[in-house]
Each structure stands twice: as C-alpha cells, then as structure tokens.
Amino acid sequence: MTPLWLRRLWQTATGRFGLIVVAVIAVTAIVSSFWTPFDPQSSDIGDRWLPPSWPHLLGTDDTGRDILSLIMAGSRTAVFVSVGAGIVATVIGIALAALGALTTRWVRETVAVFVDILIAFPVLLIAMMISSVWGGSLWVVIWAVGIGFGVNIARVTRPELRRVQQSDFVLAAKASGLTPAQSLVRHLLPNVAPVFIVQLSWSMAVAVLAEAGLSYLGFGASVVEPSWGILLADLQRYIGVHPLSVIWPGLTITFTVLALNLLGDGLREATDPTLRHRAAETHIPAVVA
User: Fold this and answer.
1) How many domains does the chain have?
2) Contact 88/142 with Cβ under 8 angstroms?
3) In the beta sheet, which residues pair with residue 60?
4) Helix, strand or coil for residue 207?
5) Which range marks the domain in which residue 133 is found?
6) What gap in Å lies between CA 197 and CA 93, rounded to an integer?
7) How crowded is residue 6: how many other Cβ atoms within 10 Å of its Cβ?
8) In this predicted model, which residue has the larger pLDDT, 60 or 6?
9) Is residue 208 part of a domain?
10) Cα–Cα distances in angstroms (integers) from residue 91 to residues 71, 130, 153, 179, in the given order
C-alpha cells in the first residue's frame, strides 16, 4: 500500500516533477555503474565532434568520447556527493540543533555563537580552504557542503525545536517519564521534519552545484573521475564552435538542482499537517450572513 505522504507528494505538480527527475538520476547512476552506451573514457579521434545522431545520441566531444556516456557516468558522482553531503549535514545539523535547544543555558548560548560564526563562511570558501590543505577531491565537497549546510540546518531547526518543546504534548510526555533523547526522537524531530526536509533538499542541491563548480575550478573531482563539472569545463572552451555540446551537461546540472529543490518543497507540503490544514481552509466557502 502506498504511504499517505507519497500519495500527497504525487498529487502536487512540483513534487511529481522533482520525484520523477530525482528517480531518473538515481536509476541512471545505478545503471551507469555497470553499463553505458560507450566507454566514457574511450577516445576516438575519428569520431570527434559528431552531432547528436545514432549511436551517439548527444554527440561526441573534442576527443571523440560519447557525451551521453559521460553524463551517465557523472550521475554517479552527483548522487554520491549529494547523498554524502546530506548525511553529513543531517548529523551536524541535528546535533547542533539539539545542543542549542535542549541543554542548559550556557551550552545553548555557546552553540548559538558557534553557529553564528560558522554561518559567516560561504560553502565554496570552506571547500577551497579544505582543498588547499588536503587537495581537491569529492570528499572535500562532501565535508564542505555538509558542514556549511549542517550549520544552516541547526540555525533554522533550533528555534523550531524550542517552540515544539514548549507544547503541551511534549510537556506531558516529559511528565510521564520520557528522557530528553526519547522525547527528541518521538516528538520533537517528527514535528520539525518539514522545516528540516527543505533545508536538507537544498543542501543536496547545493552539493550537486558545488561539486560541478569546484570540479570546474579544479578543486573537486580529479580528472580521472566522471564529473559534470569537469565535462562542462572541457567543453566550454569550444562553446563558440560547438555550442550544442555545452548545453547537455549544463541542462543536466540545472534540472537536477531544480528537481531536488522542488522535491523538498513537495515533501514539506506532504508532511506538514499545518500546511494541509490551511490549504483545506482556503477551499471552504465563506458563509454570508
């Protein structure tokens, strides 16, 4: 039986679009791990700059590599980075939010100051600082985006946790003997999930964008790893001669980032009961005396 939240997600146009595109990217990443139309790293000078046609559906690049195969292989990197950054951001965000909302006053104030300091550093700057020490890699992108958006998640989620903590049902659960950890898992986190989901989807979208941008600048994936950013950097040098080849990786990045953001918005609407209640009220006709 289909879960209720999934049916609600499918009923919204933005959620449906985001779910379809994200599912296609995920399936492509899985399929590309064992099959692509051509070897992504195989060059054939005789087939360089072929236009979109059979069997090269998106054409070839300056060394004769199949662009569709390169994009399919690059989806593995995008999924790996977005999921990895999402996990890191989740752990850091929930830990900081819990410390900033459920502990003693001096700990809460210390965490608040710490979050305010970290939030002043842009994600890309953090990634460049880390890569200057440990070198550019996908793990640099994952940790930079995870830390940057973990702090954002903590900043947004902490006041929501404080608000829910003062609710009657949470106070009743505490009076019944629930520990702070049990209250956090059973009551607090489910009630702040809609806010958390939006921030998490945004962090995953930025992870894809950051990986492409940092790889484009040479701070992300190595040249031997498939990456949409590296492909874009290779092809943009020929944009004046073969502009169509640059469109494909650019569109892929754009649609992936857009889909993750729309999926997050759709999940928020599908899981937030207050939004559904307000939406239902707007459809109730007013009674005219």
Assistant:
1) 1
2) yes
3) 66
4) helix
5) 73-275
6) 12
7) 13
8) 60
9) yes
10) 30, 20, 10, 20
Global pTM value: 0.83
Structure tokens at 96: 């900081």
* Lookup result for tokens 């954002």: 152
Tell me phi and psi for residue 237, to 5 degrees. Answer: -65, -20
**Which tokens belong to 214?**
């940092």
Residue 177: which region, alpha, beta or left (left: phi > 0; alpha: psi -120 to 50)? left
Q: pLDDT tens digits, residue range 8-24?
A: 888 888 889 999 999 99
Residue 109 lies in a domain: yes
Q: What is the pLDDT of residues 275-286, one digit of tens each?
A: 554 444 444 444
Nearest-5° Cα angle at 150, 154 to 83? 135
Segment 41-73, tens digit of pLDDT: 888 888 888 888 888 899 888 888 999 999 999
The CATH number assigned to the domain holding 144 equals 1.10.3720.10
Does residue 29 lie in a domain region? no
- Please tell me the distance from the alpha carbon of residue 88 to that of residue 94, in angstroms, as a whole number: 10
DSSP state of 119: T
Strand partners, 95: none
Distance from the first to the final alpha carbon of the chain: 45
Residue 170: phi and psi, rounded to 5, are -75, -40
Q: Is residue 51 part of a domain?
A: no
